[in-house]
Amino acid sequence: MLDGKTIFSKYLKRFLIAAIAIYLAFRLRQTLQLLLTSLFLAGAISPIIEKITSIRINVHNWRIGLNRVWAVVLLYLVLLIVVVLAIAPAPQIILELGQFFIKLPNLLEQIQLPKGGLFNLSQEQLNRILQTQPLIDQAQNFGKEIVSQTFGFTLQIFNAIGVGILSLLITAYMVINSSSLMRRCLSPFSKRVRHEIEFLIPPITRCLGAYVVGRIGTSTLLGFCTYLTLSLFGIPYSGALGLLVAISNLVPYIGGLVALGAMFIAAWGVDFNRGAIALFICFSLQQIEAFILQPWLVAPYLNLDPFELLLSIIVGAELFGVVGAIIAPPIAGTGRILFNHFASPATTDAEE
Questions:
Q1: Which of 177, 231, 241, 294 is the most buried (most CB within 10 A)?
Q2: Using one digit for the tens of pLDDT, what is the confidence trace for 94-106?
Q3: 3-class SS at 62?
Q4: Where are the beta strands (DSSP E) in the chain?
Q5: Are 244 and 255 in contact (CB under 8 A)?
Q6: Where are the transmembrane segments (predicted)?
Q7: What whole-number distance in Å separates Cα of residue 126 and Cα of residue 132?
Q8: What is the pLDDT of residues 111-156, one digit of tens each?
Q9: Do the beta carbons of residue 35 and residue 170 sit within 8 Å?
Q10: Within 10 Å of residue 328's Cβ, how many Cβ atoms?
Q11: Contacts of 310 (CB under 8 A, 6+ apart)
C-alpha cells in the first residue's frame, strides 16, 4: 500500500509540474516565442562565429584573431548594413508590388501570340485562360489591400525590427556565453544525458546555420540579383519582382515557377530581345542557386530529401503561415538528426 501511495505521489507531482509548465507557457507565450527565436538564431550563427574566431593572422610572429565578443560584433555590423539596405526601399517596393497585382489584367491583355497560334493554342483560348475572373479579382483585391496598408506594413516592419533587436541581444548573450550556459543547463542531468546532448549540438547548429545562410541568404541574394537584372534591361516592377523572387524562392520547385511567370508577364510589353535576355538571365540565376549553391551550402546539413523538404514547408505554412514555411525545414532537419541518432542504436539491436 505504501508503494502504491509513493507511485501515486510521484506521478501526481509530475502531472502538477507539467500542468504548471503548460500554464506558464501559455501565459508567457510571447516571452517564450522570443526565447525560442533567440535560441534558433544562436544555433544558426554559432557555426559562423566558430569560423570567424578560428581565423588567425600572423603579424610579426604573433597570431592575432577575434574572440567571440568581437566576432559577434563584426557579424552584427554586417547584418545591420544588410538590414538598412533592405528596409530603406521597403515601403516603395511594397507599394510597387501592390500596383503590379492591381494592373495585372492590363498586363495580361498585352500578351499576344503569333499569327496562327502557338502549340495549338489560339489567341482567343489564351485570353479566356488568362482572364479567368476569380483569379483576376483575387489578384486585384490582394494588390489593393497591399497598397491601402502600405503604411501599416511599414509600421509592422519597424515593430519587427524592434523585436528583432531584442532577440539579437539575447542571441548574442547566448552565443558569447554558450559554454557556461551549457554547463548550467546540463548540470541537473546525468553524465550520459549530457554526453548525448553535447554530441548532438554540433550537427544541429550546422543544420540551422546552413539553412539560414544557404536558404534565406541565397534567396535574398537571388532576389537582389533579379532586381538588378530587371532594372538593367528596363523591365517594369523590378523591385516588386525582386521581392517576389526572394520570398517565393523559399518554396522549392513551385516558387521559382511562380516568380518566372510574374516576370514573363511584366516583360512582355518591353522590347522582345531585352525581355528575352532578362528572363534568360533570371532563369539562369535560379538554376545556379538551386543546383549549385543549395547542394553545396544546405543539402549536406539539412538531412532532408526533396519530398520531406516540400512536406515540411507545406505543414509549416498551414500551421504558422509564412513564418512557419520559413522555419519548418530547419526544424524538420533537426528532427531528422534526432531520429537518426536515437533510432540507429535500436536498429542495431534489432538486427543483432
A1: 241
A2: 777 777 777 776 7
A3: strand
A4: 57-59, 62-64
A5: no
A6: 7-26, 32-49, 69-88, 157-176, 221-244, 250-270, 277-297, 309-328
A7: 10
A8: 665 555 555 555 565 555 555 555 555 555 655 565 555 555 555 6
A9: yes
A10: 21
A11: 252, 253
At a CB cut-off of 8 Å and minimum separation 6, what does 318 contact? 324
- Angle between the N-to-C axes of helices 238-248 and 254-267, in degrees from 0 to 180, rounded to the nearest 10: 170
CA distances from 112 to 119, 120, 236, 269 (A): 14, 14, 18, 10
The residue among 271, 274, 215 whose CA lies nearest residue 247 is 215
> Could you give the CA distance from residue 132 to residue 129 in angstroms, rounded to a whole number?
6
Cα distance between residue 321 and residue 152, in whole Å: 19
Closest CA to 39 of 182, 229, 210, 235: 182
Q: How far apart are CA 238 and CA 244, in angstroms?
A: 10
- N-terminal to C-terminal alpha carbon distance within the chain: 41
CB atoms within 10 A of CB 214: 21
SS3 337: helix
The radius of gyration of the chain from alpha carbons, rounded to an integer in Å, stands at 25
Q: Which three-class secondary structure state does DSSP give residue 113?
A: coil
C-alpha cell at position 330: 530547419
How many Å apart are CA 137 and CA 289, to the nearest integer? 33
Residue 219: count of CB within 10 angstroms of its CB: 21
* SS3 label, residue 63: strand
